[in-house]
Amino acid sequence: MSGQSLTDRIAAAQHSMTGSAISKAVCKATTHEVSGPKKKHLDYLIHCTNELNVSIPHLADTLLERTASNSWIVVFKALITTHHLMMYGSERLMQYLASRNTLFNLNNFLDKAALQGYNMSTFIRRYSRYLNEKAMSYRLAAVDFTKMKRGAEGVMRTMNTEKLIKTLPIIQNQLDALLDFQPNSNELTNGVINTAFMLLFKDSIRLFAAYNEGVINMLEKYFDMKKNQCKEALEIYKTFLNRMTKLSEFLKVAERVGIDQGDSPDLTQAPSSLLEALEQHLASLEGRKLKDLSAASPNSDW
């Protein structure tokens, strides 16, 4: 189906009559047209998030109501619009979304109207889980990892050991949810899923940058950590190496569909000798000899 449906036009007209400009803009951003939300509607909604007289709960609830639709197109575009506002709107919106006990409850969503609906429903379920995790990360850390200050003086590079060990697993969980979107390049078949994938690609780059800087900070502090901190840090680092492999696969999909890789991170893995040094240090703190370490993990991939 292309263009706005009769249902879309009636809904927009109703909002015009009731004077709800926000509801009208949300309706127009989430039409049955198989393409991403139009820029003019997204820009208007971003503007709304920055207006102090606009009710953020009303805006968020209007978007959430659109995910109750039976149409995969409407639901997917409601998720995309929410994600776009999370990325580019006022932080007030993120704060409100993070404060809700539940955000998207789409684990069982299925549009049975057409074959494409079956296929796209899978990605809607995955995408909604990522947005839930993105909101949860903000709730737990009180910061959006994709927007934080980076570099030598950035948040993750200057964080203390205790906070770092609590924060890195939160980033890991968010990145896991993002990478679970898992499309093949031949599944990116329409303007709706392509728009969602582009937003996820942008988040993946920024999220990994924060993750990577936190791991660098952790490694710099590792040999001064207490034994239990070293143990946690070692597991975090092993998980990090695994996530680099998964992120590399995700970025290859982006490359195959022609997304500019200019901002993509260098995923060259650290030499295995680094992991060995970390394991040796922990073994020495635990009073184990190196041969004990080898015997304890004969099937180690590291």
Give your account of this protein's structure.
α1 packs antiparallel against α2 (21-29) and α2 (21-29) packs parallel to α4. The model is unreliable at 15-19 and 292-302 (pLDDT under 50). This protein has helices spanning 6-18, 21-29, 39-49, 56-66, 72-88, 91-99, 115-141, 155-158, 161-179, 191-221, 227-256, 272-285, 290-296. It is mainly alpha-helical. Helix content is 67%, strand content 0%. It folds into two domains: 1-143, Serine Threonine Protein Phosphatase 5, Tetratricopeptide repeat, CATH 1.25.40; 145-302, Methane Monooxygenase Hydroxylase, Chain G, domain 1 (Up-down Bundle), CATH 1.20.58.150.
Features:
2 domains; 13 helices; mainly alpha; Methane Monooxygenase Hydroxylase, Chain G, domain 1; 302 residues; elongated
SSE blueprint and pairings:
Layout: H1 6-18, H2 21-29, H3 39-49, H4 56-66, H5 72-88, H6 91-99, H7 115-141, H8 155-158, H9 161-179, H10 191-221, H11 227-256, H12 272-285, H13 290-296
Helix pairs in contact: 1-2, 2-3, 2-4, 3-5, 4-5, 5-7, 5-10, 6-7, 7-9, 9-10, 9-11, 10-11, 11-12
Strand content: under 5%
Q: Got a strand count?
A: 0
Contiguous helical run count: 13
Helix fraction bin:
55-70%
Q: Helix/strand/pairing class, anyone?
A: mainly alpha
CATH C-level class of the largest domain: Mainly Alpha
CATH architectural name of the largest domain: Up-down Bundle
This entry's quaternary arrangement is single chain
Sheet of most strands: none
SSE string: HHHHHHHHHHHHH
Fourth-tier CATH superfamily name of the largest domain: ANTH domain
The overall average pLDDT, rounded, is: 89
- Low-pLDDT runs of 5+ residues are 15-19, 292-302
* Broad shape: elongated
Separation, N- and C-terminal Cα atoms:
51 Å
